[in-house]
Design goal:
Layout: H1 8-14, H2 20-24, H3 28-58, H4 68-104, H5 113-151, H6 173-180, H7 182-217, H8 225-237, H9 240-250, H10 257-269, H11 283-311, H12 315-323, H13 328-356, H14 359-366, E1 372-374, E2 377-378, H15 383-392, H16 398-422
Helix pairs in contact: 1-4, 3-4, 4-5, 5-16, 6-7, 7-11, 7-13, 8-11, 9-14, 11-13, 13-16, 15-16
């Protein structure tokens, strides 16, 4: 087949209508496929896309007839579809230009159906595998995030529940309310501060206990290591919600084993009288109990992780350190801990992000109580449990909950990225 010189820029401009650039490059099979996709794209835009985008802007005009929430969801979906369409057009134009350049350079390009299939098999097979996964991830992850983002800028609350009432765009009002309205400002400040304290204390406690138990159990002089391993894994073996509910009864002020049995026993062996502790009626003691429980629940995972890492540390390092006169404490700080962090740092960071959104322990232990700090939040609610209450209480505040969700996401993502970068967690290969 004689291949005449092609104008790459002309091929690219023709591909504004997908397929024409490929026809210009004499790739009829690829051009036909892209043209069919373009026709389907036009049908989608006319039949669904334009009405969905108009609905996203207006959110309806007639109550009981227009469902603002559905219109917002359909509009969000169309926004994603539009981005995909734009990406398809850009890729199509780049493809036409590159193929024209290859033709001019004398590089063979596929023309027939068999050649196209062969080229896809040789060069495009990985893309055929990852594109469906990316599309599924887009609609399973990006789509809900986008809907939440949009709801945060509406007045979706108990006074505006579709289809009885229409939603309206209110801009940054929900965010400014958290700063200006005393009820939400005080609640947000209290909940956020406790969330940060909870995340740091609970996560650090479980990491310290997990590393300590793993290091101690890995010492050569420790006997019955298998038995200790089984004991340390018990909190992990029992479903977490059962453990939390059991601890909720254990810390009961009046009939709980902590006040009835454990504290009286401690009073006998200690020179001080501890007295009964209001574990579930005093916010401070409830927070202490929650942190201790999470330390118990979370350390087995760290124990297993660190135990595996310790097995891979060469014994020669410790022998050399012993010859140099290093103490056990120096060996831990100079050899053991750096080796643990080099491997487990990303996983340890995820413990903080997990506890930042650890809803189950807060809800099951004492339902965010005792007491209230305003705005529908309890004294031990963290941000995620406060969001749950904002959306399930008798006067739901869906848009406010969405705004808080965005703030949570920004905090978690920003903190994680900074820490990952500081710890070089993104370096997946040697430089």
């Amino acid at each position: 087949m004689l291949e005449s010189k092609k104008n790459p820029n002309k091929a690219m401009l023709l591909s504004i209508i997908p397929g024409l650039g490929q026809f210009y490059n004499q790739q009829k099979v690829k051009g036909l496929a892209f043209l069919i996709l373009f026709i389907l794209e036009i049908i989608e835009i006319v039949s669904f896309g334009i009405p969905a985008l108009i609905g996203l802007v207006t959110l309806g005009s007639t109550p009981m007839q227009d469902h603002s929430l559905f219109m917002l969801i359909e509009g969000a979906m169309q926004v994603i579809i539009t981005v995909i369409i734009i990406g398809f057009h850009i890729a199509n134009m780049r493809d036409a230009k590159k193929v024209a350049e290859k033709i001019n350079d004398g590089i063979k390009v596929p023309y027939t159906l068999n050649e196209t299939i062969q080229a896809i098999y040789e060069f495009g097979f990985p893309y055929l595998l990852i594109i469906p996964a990316y599309l599924a991830m887009t609609f399973a992850i990006v789509f809900p995030v986008l809907v939440t983002l949009l709801i945060a800028f509406t007045n979706y609350d108990f006074k505006h529940i579709p289809p009885n009432a229409l939603l309206d765009w209110v801009g940054f009002k929900n965010f400014t309310n958290m700063a200006q309205l005393s009820t939400f400002r005080d609640a947000f400040t209290s909940v956020l501060s406790w969330t940060l304290i909870w995340t740091l204390c609970a996560s650090s406690l479980q990491i310290v206990i997990g590393i300590a138990t793993a290091v101690i159990a890995n010492q050569s002089f420790i006997k019955f290591k298998r038995i200790f391993g089984v004991i340390f894994l018990l909190p992990w073996a029992v479903p977490a919600f059962i453990t939390i509910l059991s601890f909720s009864n254990f810390f009961n002020d009046s009939i709980g084993a902590m006040n009835i049995q454990v504290i009286p026993f401690l009073n006998h062996i200690l020179p001080i009288d501890i007295g009964l502790v209001p574990w579930k009626t005093d916010p401070t003691w409830t927070k202490v109990a929650l942190i201790m429980i999470q330390g118990w629940l979370g350390f087995p995972y760290i124990y297993v992780l660190v135990s595996g890492i310790l097995q891979s540390i060469p014994a020669d390092l410790y022998e050399a350190a012993t010859v140099d006169g290093a103490t056990a404490w120096q060996k831990f700080w100079q050899i053991t801990l750096p080796m643990i962090l080099a491997v487990a740092a990303p996983t340890l960071i995820t413990q903080y992000t997990f506890n930042f959104n650890n809803f189950s322990i807060i809800y099951l232990f004492n339902n965010g109580g005792p007491g209230s700090v305003g705005g529908g939040a309890g004294s031990t609610d963290i941000l995620i449990s406060w969001i749950f209450k904002l959306t399930t209480q008798t006067s739901p505040q869906f848009s406010m909950a969405a705004a808080v969700t965005l703030i949570i996401s920004l905090i978690v993502i920003t903190t994680s990225l900074i820490v990952f970068k500081k710890l070089n967690a993104f370096n997946m290969e040697d430089e």
